[in-house]
User: Fold these one by one.
Assistant:
Number 1:
Amino acid sequence: MSAPSTTTGEVGTPPAPPAGTSPWVRLATANVLWILLILIGLVVAFTSIQPNFLQPFNIRSIFADQSYLIVLAIGETFVIVTAGIDLSIGGVLIFSGVIAGKVMLALYHGQSAVGATNASWPIIIIGVLAGLASGLAWGLLNGFLVAKAGVPPLIVTLGTLGMTIGGSYLLTGGTDLRGIPTRFTNLIGFGTVGGEIPYQVVIALVVAVACGLLLAYTRFGRYTYAIGSNAEAARRVGIGVDRHLLRVYALMGLLAGVAGCMNLAHYTTTTIAGHTADNLGAISAAVIGGTSLFGGRGTVAGTIIGVLIPATLASGFVIIGVNPYWQYVAVGVVLIGAVYLDQLRRRTRERN
Amino acid sequence: MKTFGRVHALRGANFAVNPGEVVALIGDNGAGKSCLVKCLSGVLQPDAGQILMDGQPVRIESPLSAMRMGIETVYQDLALADDLEASANLYLGREILKTGPLRLFGVLDRARMRSASTEAFADLGIELQDVRAPIVSLSGGQRQSVAVARSVVWASKVVLLDEPTAALGVVQRAHVLDVIRRVRDRGVAVVLISHNMPEVREVADRIEVLRLGERVARFRSADATLEQLVGAMTGALHQEEEQ
């Protein structure tokens, strides 16, 4: 199979291209290409107005600031492809960060004013693992309630959003944890590979490649699409639909745990109040990137572009001197436009 | 026999189907056709009675166990994953994985599934313009052909078709009937449920009439007239002995 078609043409392809299509035609009719063109158009527009936009520093900071959201939005893509939704991700992110921080602080004996700033790598690693485990546990709870108890995902994850945010406030007494180990924050938070690529970006990239391959090329990915497309059909051929949904929500939880640790390192504190709208950011990114809220369609590549479009707008507006609050308006327009196009396409198909 | 509470949905629905034969089950609404098919496809369990396969009594506990026995069902509603391509639907739940270390990650061998699907479709006289196109972009007839193909490709013994042509136009219907004949010619036993009398007489070798959960008549389809069939379905005609 030829490379250009496989990453984008697999599921995001709109109504049948004519017979015997070449990979290039297939690519041209893929959603991801159009979203990519919009992103490139934005970058060109901002650069032509203000050449500073393409400065490496600016590009690096766009990517570094969005890395945790890319990780969340990729998980959300899997969930939405199954025709589900996860609103709890921001809460799970904070909760996992709090757990990781608490464990690091507790393991480090010098419980002084400086916190655990001098803690060694074993303590940091145990803390990170605890954070990841907490994310996974919340994901399993979401998955269990959705798949086995049959509660609608919107309600389940709205409930766990409240529980995780409330839990984070209870665990911390309402004040953000301080004294996160500096070895951890210096490397994962601010460190770069070769002085160029931030570790935050590297982590997001690893997650993106692994999850992109998982969704596009494996049986796990195919079941994810099949369930979102027609869960009853999947059940009839013997696919363990409930078990698969549990795994998808667990994956989302784990990725929220990863994002929680990235966030903890990046801001050197737990930022309890800072992530309540992450779910909207991740859902918009997935939807802008071509993931259908009705399930069955979506790609990791599209979602990453879907994260970068709002980020580019925000950064671009600042650089060209437009009031940055216009970003929210612009993203709103793009989001509604994306869903409208999806609806339009569905209606055309049904008419056939 | 199958009862729902005090309703006897099936009582004495005795019938047989042989390899390489198309048997049509006809009957008015509520005669128990779909219920009988559900018992045979493992969706429902009969409360009494026996299912024999190759002369041996079998228990069909779930759709999955039916599939393992070589019994496949084409449902009234298409039951395809619309966003997936035809070959992905054909291999849904039976994916071919790559060999070697990639197998551990569950990596699909899409090229093999696509080429095998194209062959399987061609065998059944189904031509798809583009095997990679998602099902949703196919015409109604093609979709139904894929749904039928998915079942018959895997059926080694029995194919159950519940109103496979209900939603189709004339040409598409002819296509599906053609697929049914090809399946029969491979030596598979075909059970066809339909409301469409001309269609039944055209494709079936034998017609079994159900009424209120009972098999009330049996015809060789060459002999049956429309009046006889309708009479048996509505209870106007009584057939004491098998013809």
Note: The beta strands of chain B are 2-4, 7-10, 22-26, 51-53, 56-58, 71-74, 158-162, 189-193, 206-211, 214-220.
Number 2:
Amino acid sequence: MTQLGYIIAGWVSTFGVLGAYAVLLINRGKAVSREVAEDRRRWMTTDMPEAAGAKGK
Amino acid sequence: MSSVHEEAPVGTGSTFSRRLGLLVAVGLVAVFVLGIFLTEPDQRINPDTGEIIGQFDAVRLLYVHVPTILMAYLAFIVTAVGSFMYLRKKSMAWDILAYSAAEVGVVFTFLGLLTGSIWGRPIWNTWWQWGDVRIMTTLVMFLMYIGYLALRSVEAADPGIQARRAAIVGLIGVLNIPIVNRSVEWWPNRTIHQRSTFLEDKFDGLTFFTLMLALLVFAGLFSWLMMHRFRLGWLQHQRDTEGLDVAISARRAEAEGQFATVAVDGSVVDGSES
């Protein structure tokens, strides 16, 4: 395969940047959600009977 | 099952986001295998000279370059829609959607510029061409949305002002997309870029299929990232307004307490609680 170094650089940088960004988002989400009451995290409460009707803001 | 409040999960994940994430991961593996190992390099014979021409193995970079830049367009369109809807409805959810999409779009634009530069080195023999209109308009778009994010992060006395000024920039910024996309047609003498990869119809079946699959998978990845980024923005908004809501609730309770005391006893005349 010719131009192998460029191909590796392109794919690794794409997967690396997107992977790092995804990990960053998940970690930030975990950190911030600990500072917020459960009843204000509405996408997690949809299968919880007492909060099924919660719409948030 | 024990108490919801004790065991509620933390983070921005949900059942749907986990399933989508798994699907995207499988899709990325498929695109990788197809793009690197199964598709053929781009090489054709020039009918006039008999010379072998094409992008050769560098065409494999297009399976990540083209989807990243198209996802950036999609992200900035979502930003514009969110901005427009915020200005109409004044709902913070639209504002959160707009700047979440802008952040994801900036990441994809950066990758589009980076992979384009890496692709350009073997094909054009240069990493960067300052005079190329496609590269320059993409760079302007990238910098403009970095400016959008910077502006959105500058706090204002009223959060509505913060969201409104960002929404205006979000609506102006989307005008970059047709300029970037059509630049090679509008200024053909000022670019070394090829015209639309899709319209030139020079790829074989598996190459075209891989490119389409890559677009689909990256669209799934974009959705997954958007889901998490929007939820993070929502959590940040909840955290920032929670204290204010508690204070308002306490003040209301206090006022209701005063009213109840007066109504039941009829003895409190100075408005103070016992």
Note: The two ends of chain A are 55 Å apart (CA to CA).
